[in-house]
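To the wet lab folks,

You asked to see what we're planning to order before we commit. Fair enough. Below is the target structure as tokens, and below that is the sequence we designed to fit it. If anything looks off to you, flag it before the synthesis order goes out.
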């Protein structure tokens, strides 16, 4: 089933805790350039960055591969238009993630640089085109100017905007990889909806799903997310990357009795087995109407879709939830963080994982940001890991490159 069947197995030694993790620190300035200009830009970037270091790559796809597992944003990106023959969209979409957003300066050709900068601004990134940069002081001033660019002036989000965004293709999926903890093989992707807003930048689903529900747009939004996920997954399967996809859907969509049939039809149209889709339910959705959610989960299971409980925390309120017909439990990232700090928490979590396994549930550890968290996730017996150390939410076009890079280096 694994998307990484052709990916080489990751390093097998599990002394992860001893390995210094380069991704934890902020990245140095990123320079995407080649030829003569590369050395010049790298020199300028090194002088105006704080550490004197710079990450230099010759094209957009290598930048994507490097950023795909970064723990934090580079202070700025300097890019030569000529280094963007392909992969521009992938790189800009990755850089636009709220917790990665970095200002980007295109240096060079008066024809191409402004067009690329406009494309970046269209995704809400702070971006500028310049023909040349005199020295590191000029660069520092340009970067400082880009940082000041206010986002606060953007008008509040409205229902009409959202309706237009859904119809016009501005709601786009990102895919965050999940890998097996025992052998590192990538098996699943979580689809995360984003709103690519030209003024607000990239907006996460938690910020616009409530608006969609209030405005009667939940069904249209859910439809859009499902159609994209199925199309993207079908393309990946055609490229022999046989991932499964987990979907987060608005409550109204989950409770619609026709959802399972619609999902089946979408799978059939995309040539995908129903087992390739898992539907995630969050605790807050379940709490709104436990009985209705139980029935919805049973309907999904009847057609053999996976059903997962998202952001699980073992609180009193959730004690009964494990009895619902789930196939998977996702441990909230706060649990993984607590377990990292405290041995008793690790023991409690290992016990929870055992109980989940007894019920036949697979267990995903969320928030795996470091090799230490990876080792803890293994120790408590979780099956899959998801988090920045494994991979960020990526545009669909970056999954193949991520899979190859992960297969080459694995969790270290
Ligand atoms: O609630 P849910 O698990 O669906 O939330 C997914 C969100 O968590 C995504 O928007 C993603 O950007 C964020 N996320 C994913 N991996 C990590 C991680 O390792 N650390 C942190 N802090 N956030 C993460
Ligand atoms: Mn989720």
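Sequence we intend to order:
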């Amino acid at each position: 089933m694994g998307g990484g069947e052709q990916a080489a197995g990751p390093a097998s030694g599990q002394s992860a805790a001893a390995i210094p993790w380069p991704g934890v620190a902020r990245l140095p300035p990123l320079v995407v350039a080649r030829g003569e200009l590369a050395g010049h830009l790298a020199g300028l970037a090194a002088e105006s960055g704080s550490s004197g270091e710079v990450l230099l790559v010759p094209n957009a796809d290598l930048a994507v591969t490097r950023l795909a597992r970064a723990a934090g944003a580079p202070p700025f990106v300097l890019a030569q238009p000529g280094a963007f023959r392909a992969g521009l969209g992938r790189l800009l979409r990755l850089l636009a993630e709220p917790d990665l957003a970095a200002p980007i300066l295109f240096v060079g050709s008066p024809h191409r640089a402004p067009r690329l900068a406009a494309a970046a601004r269209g995704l809400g990134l702070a971006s500028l085109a310049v023909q040349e940069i005199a020295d590191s002081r000029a660069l520092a001033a340009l970067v400082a100017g880009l940082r000041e660019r206010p986002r606060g002036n953007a008008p509040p989000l409205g229902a009409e905007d959202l309706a237009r965004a859904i119809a016009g293709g501005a709601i786009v999926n990102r895919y965050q990889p999940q890998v097996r903890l025992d052998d590192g093989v990538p098996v699943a992707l979580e689809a995360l909806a984003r709103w690519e807003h030209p003024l607000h930048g990239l907006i996460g689903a938690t910020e616009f799903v409530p608006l969609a529900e209030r405005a009667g747009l939940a069904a249209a939004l859910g439809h859009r997310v499902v159609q994209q996920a199925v199309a993207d997954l079908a393309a990946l399967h055609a490229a022999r990357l046989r991932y499964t996809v987990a979907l987060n859907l608005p409550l109204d969509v989950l409770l619609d009795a026709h959802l399972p049939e619609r999902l089946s039809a979408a799978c059939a149209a995309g040539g995908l087995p129903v087992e390739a889709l898992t539907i995630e339910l969050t605790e807050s959705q379940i709490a709104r109407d436990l009985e209705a959610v139980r029935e919805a989960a049973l309907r999904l299971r009847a057609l053999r879709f996976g059903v997962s409980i998202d952001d699980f925390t073992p609180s009193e309120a959730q004690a009964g939830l494990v009895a619902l017909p789930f196939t998977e439990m996702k441990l909230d990232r706060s649990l993984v963080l607590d377990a990292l700090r405290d041995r008793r928490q690790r023991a409690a979590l290992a016990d929870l994982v055992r109980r989940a396994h007894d019920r036949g549930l697979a267990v995903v550890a969320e928030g795996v940001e470091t090799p230490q968290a990876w080792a803890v996730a293994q120790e408590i017996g979780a099956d899959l890991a998801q988090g920045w150390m494994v991979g960020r939410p990526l545009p669909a076009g970056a999954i193949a490159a991520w899979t190859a890079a992960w297969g080459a280096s694995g969790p270290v």
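Structural context that might help your review: The chain has two domains: 30-148, 159-409. Residues 1-24 have pLDDT under 50 and may be disordered.

Thanks,
Computational group
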